[in-house]
Design goal:
With about 180 residues, this protein is mainly beta. It has two helices and eight strands. The longest helix has 19 residues, at about 1-20.
């Protein structure tokens, strides 16, 4: 009697395992992530009050494997170094990025593209002080797809700061 019950349980377990483990189809990916480096890989330009350095610039796109169409707004990532070259303190508010073609005309985003071309900084820099950060913005599809990109224009938004800080220490103690 006990052997019958054990045999039935084993048979049911095997049947459930056999029919429950059907083969699942694994679909091939339909999209791929492509990362390309910008040339030149490192650039430094001095403005009126700042020296701005860009490095490790890369454009990342998500493309449909079959049609090779870009399906999401590409991103531009890299490293940015901002050095205050003025004689006073400057309050950096943000950085905006604009893309220009070979003729110097702006490359606009198309309808439906995500637009994220600014980074917020909020940092006061003293003369000769350096501020480093990551640049992570979107770039128009047309600039990547048609290889129309000729220049990147960086605009630094800042406030000349008359702010001076002075710390005074008073010798005090509790008795």
């Amino acid at each position: 009697m006990h052997f019958k019950k054990i045999f039935i349980l084993v048979a049911l377990g095997l049947a459930i395992g056999f029919f429950g483990c059907t083969e699942k189809k694994v679909e091939a990916p339909t999209q791929e992530r492509i990362t390309k480096n910008l040339v030149p890989p490192k650039a430094e330009v001095k403005g009126e009050n700042f020296l701005i350095g860009l490095s490790d610039l890369q454009v990342t796109t998500i493309e449909d494997i079959t049609s090779k169409e870009i399906v999401e707004t590409p991103t531009l990532r890299g490293h940015i170094v901002i050095t205050n070259k003025s004689k006073g303190m400057l309050d950096i508010q943000g950085v905006t990025v604009e893309y220009l073609d070979q003729a110097g005309k702006p490359i606009h985003f198309e309808s439906g593209e995500e637009i994220a071309t600014a980074s917020l900084y909020l940092r006061i820099t003293k003369p000769e002080e350096t501020s480093e950060g990551t640049l992570n913005v979107t770039i128009p599809r047309r600039a990547v797809k048609e290889k129309a990109l000729g220049k990147i224009e960086i605009s630094l938004v800042y406030i000349p700061s008359p702010l001076n800080r002075e710390t005074i220490v008073f010798p005090e103690k509790i008795e």
